[in-house]
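Researcher: Batch entry, complex prediction.
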Amino acid sequence: MKPTIDWPRNDYSRVPFRLHHDPALYEAEMERIFRGPAWSYLCLEAEIPGPGDFRTTWVGDTPVVVSRAKDGAIHAFVNRCSHRGAMIVRELRGTAERHVCLYHRWCYSGAGDLTGLPFRKGLKGEGGMPEEFDMKAESPRKLAVANVHGMLFGTFQPQRADPIEAYLGEFGMGIIKRFLARPVRVLGYSRQRIAGNWKLYAENLRDTYHASLLHEFFVTYGVDRATQKGGVKMDARHRHNMNHAYAASDSQEDAKAAYADTAARLDRMQLRDGKLLQFRNEFEDGMNLAAPTFFPNALLIQINNSLATRQIRPKGVDAHEVFQTVFGYADDDEAMTRHRLISANLVGPAGLVSMEDGEAIEVVQKATRSAGAACAVVEMGGRGPVRDLAHRVTETPIRGFWSYWAELMGVEPEGAIR
Amino acid sequence: MKVPGEVRETFTALMADYAMAIDENRLEDWVELFEEDCDYKVVTRENVEQGLPNVLMWCDNKNMLRDRIGSYRHVNLYNLHYDRHVLGPLHCTGNEGPVWHFEVSYSLFQTDLEGASRLFSVGRYRVEALLEGDSARLRSVTVIADTGLVPSLLATPL
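Model: Structure tokens for the complex:
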């Protein structure tokens, strides 16, 4: 059934709160976006380096296996047995030549093809599957996989999806290359379950306005302030975006003047151990903060020398998991790895500059359940057409997100901006 | 390993102080249980079992602990809650002179301002502590959380 939405405006500067609460919309999102023509982030290629290596992941609420076949090719398929629907692979990761469902031992290749099942021909001429049973036709649904500089994306509808280069655009392709120019070494994972709709997280990532206000640590210690040089960039379709800032590009005086009317404590606090905030510039562009977001479920994030991908895993209409993969580079020495791990104090579920997001999203979810037809106000940075901005007091990319969301959902308002 | 009763008692009291200081929101007192040259780390079992070094928190000296607590007090905003630890018995794994190694299981419940409680984290502490007479100080605490899926967010220490 086609959902309908009463958008008060065609530029998404008003967003009905019910979009975070309607279970029917959630089901439609899973179908039209995650199992539709969007490219979702799966995992890093570095996580499945060898033949037979696999990892389980999620695309929306669909469980997926990503695996590397003997010939090195990477496959992704739905982690659900064709027979009775059991999860085929139950481990988080591993190496296997084939995957066997525990329930009735149906057997799948690393590429996700059904290759055998016990008693197919019955026993002593009795029972068994019908002669015409077609294993190939009954294999789990596959995703097309694209490898972008070692970041793996998958889509269920490659025939409808833009080719990955066009989907990510010059912006997306370029920024992924910037993060993954050197071979990566995965340092580990963190997970966080936030009791809020997944789109609240997607919005949060596109809201530069909140960064230096909610995350007071940023401002207090000068990691990230709206007064720094930086801004937001988007792809041509405005579905992806990047909030970014350049290290040490503002002065303490500018910051003090700008934050005079907020609660930020620019003078009072000083760290006893400054290494937490040390930034060793390792990128040509000199950015110390870069957070490119890819519709619908991914983020690359750099805060100083802490690097990670994040994957949004929707868990019903009112919860999502944020799965973070922290990485460094294969040629990091021990001191650099240690420095990255110390920097990791800043990010993740216990991150000194990120912990507030979980709370902000949960209190929005709590308070908007009863909001009826009320809408969020999304006007910081202006109304009307969506475009890149060379300043950081904006939430314009949120409107970009909704415009693409509405397109895929088939619910654009009349005269919608794109 | 078999441990003299008074040693066990001293470390049990140390860990009770540890838990109570957090639960009663005396985080500054909690910091004071550590030596100056200390290490406090929160890791998850998922990472440990894969041999991966990622941390959720890592303070490799007491000043970093002070910074974190200072940040909670003055800078960070987080879910308003009460903590309640329930600790298991001390499991000693060895000692080198006055430096003792032991592990303790914990359950940590969180209660919100409206009184709703939930299991927030379960796991174990791997501890290195220095025994001086009948008092003890923490040299190193590694919290290995079975609960890798952090509910909401992790602010106050485990």
